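Case study 2.
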Amino acid sequence: MSSRMTVAGMSADALSELFDAHAVDVAPRLLGCRLTVSTPEEDVTVRLTEVEAYGGEGEDPGSHAYRGMTPRSASLFGPPRHVYVYRSYGIHFCMNLVSHAAGAAGCC
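Prediction:
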């Protein structure tokens, strides 16, 4: 499975570098962009119509990284440009895009 994201007027390299910044700076830039996930069966594309920004450890109580790394939140501390998916209230799944400077945690 692979994925790609496009933002109007932004090259793939610039988009990749964007995720090295703090989530507060990244989230507004993602609004309206398209995220595509490719599987052997088909491509699925969604347009991001709502974004949120979550700071890292000790920074944002709404972040799953707030109390430090756990097995559940480990991907938030990993390299940027990864996806963190979790189940919310046992009802639906939420997806965050990991974005932060080196040595930090955070997501949009």
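The longest helix spans residues 23-30.
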